[in-house]
Amino acid sequence: MPIKLCNANLGDLPEGVTVPTYDRAGLTPGIVHIGLGNFHRAHQAWYLHRLMMAGKAQDWAIIGAGVRVFDAAQRERLAAQDYLTTLIELDPKGSSAEVVGSMIGYVPIEEGNGALIAQMADPAIRIVALTVTEGGYFLDPATKAFDPSHPDIRHDVANPDSPRTAFGAMVAALARRRAAGHGAFTCQSCDNLPGNGTKLQEVILGLARLIDADLAAWIAENATFPNSMVDCIVPATGPRELELVQEMGIGDAAPVTHENFRQWVIEDKFCAGRPAWEEAGATISDLVHDYEAMKLRMLNGGHQVIAAPAEILGIRTIHETMAHPLIRNLFRKIALEEVAPHVHDVPGMTPAAYVDLLDERFSNPKIADTVRRVAFDGSSRHTGAVLPVIRDAVKAGAPLDGLALSQALWARMCTGVREDGSTIEPNDPVWEDLVRAAQAARDTPQAWLEQRHFYGSLADDARFSKAFAQALTALWRDGTESVLRAYAG
Predict the structure, then answer these.
(1) Which of 73, 399, 408, 442 would give a disulfide with 471, using CB separation of 3.0 to 4.6 Å?
(2) How far apart are CA 46 and CA 85, in angstroms?
(3) DSSP of 241-254, one letter per residue?
(4) CA distance 466 to 369
(5) Closest Cα to residue 235, out of 71, 42, 465?
(6) Which stretches make up the Mannitol dehydrogenase C-terminal domain (predicted)?
């Protein structure tokens, strides 16, 4: 029978499973992390765990947090196993398991977020980090500027002591620290957003100004918002992953699988100190934007390029998608010919070499990453990772037929029906709006581009609009595989 994962049983786990060698009872908190999904536990928590395994960062342990009702179930699962997580590395050469113990608590989920505010107001907390997805920052889709009109933001402005959002809770905690004479904490975004720290700063200061201009000025002067780039493919946990951890002899209700690649590039702007993450393999660099542009435009953008045709054709996983020669050729041709010219080299990596690396990573048969997970929230992911490249191509007069095709494939997918007639279930916060636009675009392609909150002035560019219309018309007339063959062979 699998051995239940908990502190008391760490010594009894199967041979070969790496377990914490540090005294978890002696750890003290230094970080609150909001958004305890799989990615954080496979990535940032692992870097800290590795420092702790070396006898360092013992006063930087993580307190988990969430602001959504369904975060309570995750809290219960993790609390029942002393906040331990089994990480299973899925390498084509063989799998391995490691138990990560850098998280030591999880703030109760409650309306008004009082417990979270109190935890962040504790001066022992020096970093508040977030993984709340690209779409969770209350940004206008077209301008990517802070949008104060959202009902949740308006609620937080009217009720600053009982906010709904993570950002409202952070502002409330900073207000308490200021009132108590304590310093600010570092606000650290770990989401896939261009300039994620800068965007987090815009949201926090924008919200704070609506509540208290003096508080906003204090935050601007005392808090810091480092930019960072995060990279590791981490599938969602489902029956397959739960079965895998059980087969390894571990009773873990919240295991995480991940690929055998991990990267974290961080700008060194921490107002209250930080762990020495570089000693665990992170890169501390002033070139975050270049690393970030390569990753967002080629990995995240590449994911969107291949997910739409895969969904239309009914392919379930990303590695199966890459086994489809036409989709693989689509990815490589767009990445090498239309994206790479708008991406800078970074130390040790050219855009062309990165395409080869992504080809290998996406094709890993051990990673059962689903097309549905990758395609989720395309309204945020296309606007954040693909449309910026199209804008650069338009400005430079560079090739963009493949990029236009990627948008036509997204529009075709958003009709909600595959080529075999089966239904694509809703997979975006604004799915109903996307479906309406996609259905209208079947007869009038420009109707898709008239979603100005996504495309802005791109809808007026004659070259892009023509390429998009030709691609979408061909998709409906000739079918996906025929169009892919004509573009990429």
Answers:
(1) 408
(2) 10
(3) HHHHHHHTTEE-SS
(4) 34
(5) 42
(6) 288-476
Q: Please give the pLDDT value at position 411.
A: 98
Q: CB neighbours (10 Å) of residue 123?
A: 12
Q: Is 239 exposed, middle or buried (0-12, 13-18, 19+ CB in 10 A)?
A: exposed
Helix/strand/coil for 96: strand
At 475, which helix (H) or strand (E)?
Answer: helix 462-478
- What is the per-residue pLDDT across 410-441, written as a single tens digit (0 to 9) for each? 999 999 999 999 999 999 999 999 999 999 99
What are the structure tokens assigned to 130, written together?
A: 């977030």
Q: Which one, of 390, 437, 430, 444, lies nearest residue 411 by Cα?
A: 437
Cβ-proximal residues to 1 (8 Å cutoff; 6+ apart), any chain: 251
DSSP 408-423: HHHHHHTTSB-TTS-B
Q: What angle do the packed helices 301-313 and 480-488 form, to 10 degrees?
A: 140
Half-sphere exposure of 130 (CA within 13 A, CB side): 31
Structure pTM? 0.89
**At 431, is the secondary structure helix, strand, or coil?**
helix
In this structure, the strands spanning 228-231 and 263-266 are antiparallel
- Is the pLDDT assigned to residue 75 strictly greater than 80? yes
Helix (H) or strand (E) holding 203: helix 196-211
Say if CB 198 and CB 229 are below 8 A apart: no
Per DSSP, 390 falls in state H
CATH numbers and ranges of domains, the chain:
3-286 (3.40.50.720), 289-488 (1.10.1040.10)
Dump pLDDT digits (tens) for 145-161: 999 999 999 999 999 99
Q: Residue 31 and residue 124: Cα distance in Å, rounded?
A: 8
95: confidence class by pLDDT, cuts 50, 70, 90: confident
Amino acid identity for residue 199 in this structure: K
Pairing of strands 103-106, 61-65: parallel
Nearest alpha-carbon partner for 257 in 118, 85, 392:
85
Give the chain's end-to-end CA distance (angstroms, integer).
Answer: 51
Rounded Cα distance, 364 and 368, in Å: 8
